[in-house]
Specification:
alpha/beta
Length: 240
């Protein structure tokens, strides 16, 4: 299946999920996760209009990042060439200097020491970094993230970091053969977001919900996701 066919298929499924849940397609952003494809394929993704690009490690992303910026500056990619990069993997504090300033969003803020490192680098660069707080809703040992019962306290701790903006919450559901089984995880994240807003923990309402991947994005949309992280179903996967 070509990239164009995969995009069309995802859009059709997304349209139906929006109809089922009474949502507008315009409220949902797709992040094309390119970690399994080459530099050339990543450029094709951006040319196709998928300007939100997700990677989980700088060492794997750097060639794609530099290629996209080079082609954008030269105008080769046209109007679609200004990619917006999302860091979606677990981030070590000693890697922050490689990520902040290159990635517009970070989806995996899960501890105060990481927030401090992001804030310090962002202050040096004179920028504010939108971050999603990663929550381990499923409670799996293999998953990173703040425990749900610790989210309010953690969010309050972050108020002292003036160069970190809480863009929303993120979670990863367990892989299930039947996607419907992921619904409690996605619903749980939405409820946690709503509780934060009801308690006015942040200065501005938290709106973002980064949840839903190739196997379960339709359920995530029905439960309120507005940032989907789609890899193989959208951009494919290439053998190394």
């Amino acid at each position: 299946m070509t990239l164009e066919h995969r995009i069309a298929d995802v859009e059709e499924r997304l349209k139906l999920a929006c109809e089922r849940s009474g949502r507008s397609r315009d409220d949902i952003n797709i992040i094309a996760v390119t970690k399994y494809v080459s530099v050339a394929s990543t450029m094709d993704v951006i040319r196709a209009g998928l300007v939100h690009v997700g990677e989980n490690r700088w060492q794997n992303a750097q060639d794609k990042w530099h290629a996209a910026h080079s082609l954008s500056e030269s105008g080769v990619l046209g109007e679609a060439g200004q990619a917006i990069w999302h860091f979606i993997g677990s981030l070590q504090t000693n890697k922050v200097k490689e990520v902040v300033g290159r990635f517009s969003y970070i989806h995996s803020l899960d501890r105060e020491s990481l927030a401090a490192a992001i804030d310090k680098k962002a202050e040096e660069l004179g920028i504010i970094v939108p971050c999603f707080l990663q929550v381990n809703v499923s409670g799996e040992d293999s998953k990173h993230g703040v425990a749900p019962e610790e989210l309010v306290a953690f969010t309050k701790e972050l108020s002292r970091f003036t160069h970190v903006k809480i863009e929303g919450l993120m979670t990863m559901a367990p892989y299930e053969m039947e996607p419907e089984q992921t619904r409690p995880v996605f619903r749980g994240l939405r409820q946690l977001r709503d509780e934060l807003n009801q308690q006015a923990v942040t200065n501005e309402p938290v709106t973002g919900l980064s949840m839903g991947m190739s196997n379960d994005f339709e359920v995530a949309v029905e439960e309120g996701a507005n940032w989907l992280r789609l890899g193989t179903i959208l951009v494919g996967k290439e053998e190394e």
